[in-house]
Amino acid sequence: MNTSVSTDRAGALYSFLAFLTVSVWGVTFVSTKILLGQGMSPTDIFISRFAIAYICIIFFSHSRLFASSVRDEMLLALAGLTGGSLYFLAENSALGITFASNVSLLICMAPVFTMILGSAVLKDRIKPIAWGGSLLALAGVGTVVLNGSLNLGINPLGDFLTLTAALSWAVYTLLVKRLNSTYSNMFITRKVFFYGIVTAAAYAALSGVGIRLPLSNPGPVLANLLFLGVGASFACYMIWNIVVKALGPEKASNYIYLNPLVTIMASSVILGEQLTPWTIIGAAAIITGVYLTSK
Questions:
Q1: Cα separation, 75 vs 198, whole angstroms
Q2: What's the CA gap between 109 and 117, in Å, rounded?
Q3: Distance from first CA to last CA of the chain, Å, rounded?
Q4: Does residue 5 sit within a domain?
Q5: Which candidate in 97, 121, 170, 234 could, as Cys together with 113 as Cys, close a disulfide (CB 3.0–4.6 Å)?
Q6: pLDDT, tens digit, 9 for 90 and up, residues 107-143
Q7: CA neighbor of 49 nearest in space, from 285, 211, 264
Q8: Residue 2 counted as domain residue
Q9: Could you give the residue ranges of the DSSP H alpha helices within the chain?
């Protein structure tokens, strides 16, 4: 009995941590929007936030430089690419050429991709109720994002980039599961930040976009970069990797469905955007679906 209660409490704790992490990530869309308004590019924002996160984590994890094998080091580099530069640059580039509603909806294909890849590649056994809950949550996301209008435009390149970002995050989550069995969370997270910065810097150099930090209005820029770097990156990536190890990649990924809901709630509070009955209906479907996937 005590073991069962202890297990339930542990599961509740990790579920709460997953919800907390996704809630913070939901607010990052608002913070990123503010920084874009200050003249920063998506590449500027990503490199700056990951650089801040790397500086934070290096104080706690600095004794070990490399993985035990070249193969594992390459897996860490791939994690930095898929969970860092590729994900953010693809998503933010999509936001520049297609509807935000498309991006918000299609990025939530990440849990579905995670379940498909986990089942096909890692041979993970996923219950039918988990598939049903995931699809219900995805429908709820569609209800929240589309707001009852069905105004979903088609932009092949933008939609492709968004699905690339979603698939990239699914691969990252599964890589974390693989690496968690051998390396500490601190080491994995530090490597993800490092390789994310390296690959994004390489992209910036090859594309000629450069890196700039606007100083005309430093207050909002610094505040939002610190939030993205310390909170949304340093703290949340470590927590997410712990959650993936505890709950498994499939269950953890389904909490991503809460992301657009949190974004809309934050936009309502911070930016004054209005909530609608469709938001409430979609929220109920999302919460129910996520609950079912955790069973």
A1: 15
A2: 12
A3: 19
A4: no
A5: 170
A6: 888 888 888 888 888 777 888 888 888 888 888 887 8
A7: 211
A8: no
A9: 2-37, 42-58, 70-80, 86-97, 100-106, 110-120, 128-146, 156-180, 185-207, 218-226, 236-247, 249-253, 258-266, 277-293
Amino acid code (one letter) for 272? G
Q: Which two tokens stand for residue 132?
A: 């049903």
How many residues in the chain?
A: 295
Q: Is residue 267 part of a domain?
A: yes
Whether residue 200 contacts residue 143, with contact meaning beta carbons closer than 8 Å, is answered with no
C-beta of residue 56 within 8 angstroms of C-beta of residue 194: no
User: What's the token pair of residue 233?
Assistant: 């990156």
CA distances, 241 to each of 49, 76, 205, 266, 277 (Å): 18, 13, 30, 24, 35
Give the amino acid at 87. Y
Q: What is the pLDDT of residue 1?
A: 46
Count of domains observed in the chain = 1
Q: Give residue 218's domain range.
A: 14-293
In angstroms, rounded to a whole number, what is the distance separating the alpha carbons of residues 224 and 89?
18
